[in-house]
Amino acid sequence: xxxxxxxxxxxxxxxxxxxxxxxxxxxxxxxxxxxxxxxxxxxxxxxxxxxxxxxxxxxxxxxxxxxxxxxxxxxxxxxxxxxxxxxxxxxxxxxxxxxxxxxxxxxxxxxxxxxxxxxxx
Length: 121
What we know:
Layout: E1 4-5, E2 8-9, H1 11-19, H2 23-32, E3 37-38, H3 39-46, H4 50-62, E4 66-71, E5 74-79, H5 85-97, H6 101-114
Antiparallel strand pairs: 1-2, 3-5, 4-5
Helix pairs in contact: 2-5, 3-6
């Protein structure tokens, strides 16, 4: 497999785009573009079960797209800074595009409801 073109390593791009090749993962990235979120916020915003959201977050984390931190029994996710400026620009373009706008607006509306006081209890 050709992993570089004229000295340019394409593997980080392939890893990023493979991770973003699923609509749900693009929706997660778009939501995380608004800031750090707990898994419960994402599952409510996406109207998906926790195991499915966690599986998608695992793919994104393995690809270096997101990073997490634990706070008690809760795990919070945020977009990871990318090592190369070109990768960072590609990720930011996905955040700006946000997948299908109508779907993102609905996700954001559910997210606002999910992030109220006591949302993670």
